[in-house]
């Protein structure tokens, strides 16, 4: 009060107004700063269940943007359905097309899960990747708990291929015919049922068999720990070259791309191009980026850039048909079960809220080839 009196009537009013203005400006600055830290990216604010621009952008770029899908939530959870069909152009069966689920008893086939997925894909104008034909995991007991003669096992593989690939013939864009043929960290072929019984030729044999049943499908070898080069990648390269020289119907290599945050290879494009130079497609087939716990906002933002980098890599590689993420949302991810202490690997969180990983993919797809962001985002 004393100060106001000394300054006089109108001066006091100006001083008060000035103080008020400074307070308002200060509050606005604080609010903007808080918003920058707390408010999600623009794409995260979009309703994730609507036909979002992610799917539209992928379509516009002629790129398959896929998601691995599980049967139960697809049947029971409308939000899960909306995330799948609203954001992606393609689906992979996460588990339901694997041996133990398709043929739990010899000659006893269960196609309820695969049918549900393929029908959903058709209804929503999505393409399908088939997963998987020969693998060491998720095989039924009747197949693993006894010895087989080579000819017998060839017959079993033939029957399974005719039943599964035959049922969806013409409806599958691609099949992971050979899954993880090399040891986890090594260049040696994996000691699995197929190798032990049929020898190395099981790979060519499975590809020929698949090609005879579904001649239109692109046939893949799908592998992990090859995305950054190294001895395992070299062994895969040798295998692919050899198969192609022999005229075996191999059309693509799947880089699974189960990455750890901070370790996405810088030379992903070069590694992919090594294989596309052979005349093969290279797809990113099982992308996720797991983060060691506790997970903070900064890591989630950086993960968004890693998703952007991977989609950008696919766009740069002429023969990369697409990128598939391995799960619709974090609570459906395989990561916490298989890598305890890591989490948050996917573009949608456990409440189906989109994360910067989704924005990162939008960002990559929005950039003009060789240029900056498109103006029509
Ligand atoms: O089927 C049983 C069910 O009967 C049981 O009630 C339930 C209880 O937990 O488990 C069910 O089995 C689970 C199975 O998925 C089917 O849902 C297993 O516990 C679970 O370990 C299994 O994990 C799958 C894993 O392959 C098996 O190796 C993951 O969901 C799936 O994402 C993962 O996918 C693989 C790709 O096929 C190949 N590349 C690696 C990728 C990640 O491992």
UniProtKB/TrEMBL annotation:
Matches recorded under PROSITE patterns: GH10_1, GH10_2
**GO molecular function, a single term:** endo-1,4-beta-xylanase activity
Extract one GO BP annotation from the record: xylan catabolic process
**EC number(s) reported in the record:** 3.2.1.8
Query: GH10 domain: which residues?
Result: 51-364
Which reaction is this enzyme known to catalyze?
Endohydrolysis of (1->4)-beta-D-xylosidic linkages in xylans
Q: Which Pfam families match?
A: Glyco_hydro_10 (PF00331)
Q: Where is the active site?
A: 286 (nucleophile)
InterPro entries given in the database record: GH (IPR017853), GH10 (IPR044846), GH10_AS (IPR031158), GH10_dom (IPR001000)
Transmembrane stretches in the record are 20-41
Q: Could you tell me the keywords of this UniProt record?
A: Carbohydrate metabolism, Glycosidase, Hydrolase, Membrane, Polysaccharide degradation, Signal, Transmembrane, Transmembrane helix, Xylan degradation
Similarity comment: family membership = Belongs to the glycosyl hydrolase 10 (cellulase F) family.
Write down what this protein is called.
Beta-xylanase
């Amino acid at each position: 009060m004393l100060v106001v009196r000394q300054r006089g009537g109108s001066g006091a009013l100006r001083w008060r107004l000035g103080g008020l203005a400074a307070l308002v400006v200060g509050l606005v600055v604080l609010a903007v700063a808080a918003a920058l830290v707390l408010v999600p990216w623009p794409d995260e604010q979009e309703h994730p269940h609507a036909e979002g621009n992610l799917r539209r952008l992928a379509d516009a770029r002629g790129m398959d943007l896929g998601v691995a899908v599980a049967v139960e939530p697809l049947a029971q959870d409308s939000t899960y359905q909306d995330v799948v069909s609203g954001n992606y152009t393609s689906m992979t069966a996460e588990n339901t097309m694997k041996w133990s689920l398709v043929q739990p008893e010899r000659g006893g086939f269960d196609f309820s899960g695969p049918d549900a997925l393929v029908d959903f894909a058709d209804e929503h104008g999505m393409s399908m990747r088939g997963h998987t034909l020969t693998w060491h995991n998720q095989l039924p007991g009747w197949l693993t708990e006894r010895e087989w003669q080579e000819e017998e096992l060839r017959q079993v593989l033939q029957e399974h291929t005719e039943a599964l690939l035959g049922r969806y013939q013409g409806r599958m864009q691609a099949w992971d015919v050979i899954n993880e043929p090399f040891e986890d960290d090594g260049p040696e072929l994996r000691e699995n049922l197929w190798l032990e019984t049929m020898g190395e030729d099981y790979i060519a044999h499975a590809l020929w068999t698949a090609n005879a049943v579904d001649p239109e499908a692109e046939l893949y070898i799908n592998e992990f720990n090859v995305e950054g080069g190294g001895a395992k990648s070299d062994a895969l390269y040798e295998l692919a070259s050899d198969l192609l020289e022999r005229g075996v119907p191999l059309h693509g290599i799947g880089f699974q791309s189960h990455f750890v945050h901070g370790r996405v290879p810088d030379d992903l494009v070069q590694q992919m191009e090594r294989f596309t130079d052979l005349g093969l497609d290279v797809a990113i087939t099982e992308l996720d980026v797991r983060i060691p716990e506790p997970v903070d906002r900064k890591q989630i933002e950086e993960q968004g850039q890693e998703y952007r980098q991977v989609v950008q890599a696919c766009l740069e590689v002429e023969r990369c048909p697409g990128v598939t993420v391995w799960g619709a949302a974090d609570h459906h991810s395989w990561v916490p079960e298989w890598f305890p202490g890591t989490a948050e690997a996917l573009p949608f969180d456990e409440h189906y809220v989109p994360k910067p990983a989704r924005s990162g993919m939008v960002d990559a797809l929005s950039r003009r080839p060789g240029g900056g962001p498109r103006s029509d985002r």
